[in-house]
Amino acid sequence: MALAPTSTIDDGPLFAEVEMGADASSPTIRATVVQAATVFYDTPATLDKAERLLAEAASYGSQLVVFPEAFIGGYPRGSNFGVTIGNRTAKGKEDFRKYHAAAIDVPGPEVDRLAAMAGKYKVYLVMGVIERDGYTLYCTVLFFDSQGRYLGKHRKLMPTALERIIWGFGDGSTIPVFETPIGKIGAAICWENRMPLLRTAMYAKGVEIYCAPTADSREVWQASMTHIALEGGCFVLSANQFCRRKDYPPPPEYSFAATEEELMPDSIVCAGGSVIISPSGTVLAGPNYEGEALITADLDIGEIVRAKFDFDVVGHYARPEVLSLVVKDNPMTPFSFTSASVKAESSQK
């Protein structure tokens, strides 16, 4: 199976599509994972790029399109925002100001545009964004249906390592699984896919198309994706960016800490590895480490039932008398206003 990226966006398709067929006797859904780089610090240009990619995926007949982690707003690979224990630099604070400016409000005009794009091209859209909520940022996934409606969001529960400096923590109120005509769709972001209890919560909600936007391009990531497909009896769609140094602003505006001197403009700083895996653990498309690409497969929905016959993790393979999980799915807020409660009570009298 060839995975052939292209390097131009002006003539012909943006990226070569990769697809594999499924049994025509079973219902199938055509899905695409996008492997492409953000236009860093330029959210309008990134939205334009997203629309071109979405249009091309739709032209191949895709009904579901999944974008990488932090595609809108950018994954700040290599940056430390001037942070050391006990100190922050003036440049690091300015870097965060620019990063904050590139994030989007949810709801907001960028969300409206993404919804319109999903409706225009008649696709279900799963999009990784950096969400701005006041002065705190969240690594978030947004969901849209093919009628152009915003369905909801998932905020990353547990940022990894230095991500915790720049992103807030999600809570149990944003772990949705959406029931749609093409299947039950949910998402977990990057290393939170390695959290067994989070995965179990999604399985309990019946996820069938498990989206895993990520920033992890290591080969070992593939083992996690295969395991989740087998464990959950679900399709796993993992989308990652393929980035070179030149996809980020040049130094000194943007620097890759400790490695900048070793990098050339064409140096690969994230190698992709986007992949689509069936509930039986079969790799349907990918992983691609060659460049920007659209990676497509036909998902045989009957494969979910066949896989669950062997192993249903929250069904016949569960042992609730021995093991159980409680998910606190109410919003966790740091404040409440008693006057709001008093007004609500007064209006009911």
TrEMBL record:
Q: Which terms does the UniProt entry file under GO BP?
A: detoxification of nitrogen compound
Q: Which residues form the CN hydrolase domain?
A: 29-301
Q: Which residues form the signal peptide?
A: none
- Name the enzyme group at the top EC level: hydrolase
Reaction catalysed by this enzyme: 3-cyano-L-alanine + 2 H2O = L-aspartate + NH4(+)
Q: Which Pfam families match?
A: CN_hydrolase
EC number(s) reported in the record:
3.5.5.4
The protein's UniProt keywords, in alphabetical order, are:
Hydrolase
Active-site residue list: 69
> Which branch of life, at top level?
Eukaryota
Q: Name one GO molecular function term.
A: nitrilase activity
Q: Which CDD domains match?
A: nitrilases_CHs
Q: Which InterPro entries match?
A: C-N_Hydrolase, C-N_Hydrolase_sf, Nitrilase/CN_hydratase_CS, Nitrilases_CHs
Q: Which family does it belong to?
A: Belongs to the carbon-nitrogen hydrolase superfamily. Nitrilase family.
What does the record give as the function of this protein?
Highly specific for beta-cyano-L-alanine (Ala(CN)). Low activity with 3-phenylpropionitrile (PPN). Not associated with auxin production but may be involved in cyanide detoxification.
Q: What is this protein called?
A: cyanoalanine nitrilase
Q: Which organism is it from?
A: Erythranthe guttata (Yellow monkey flower)
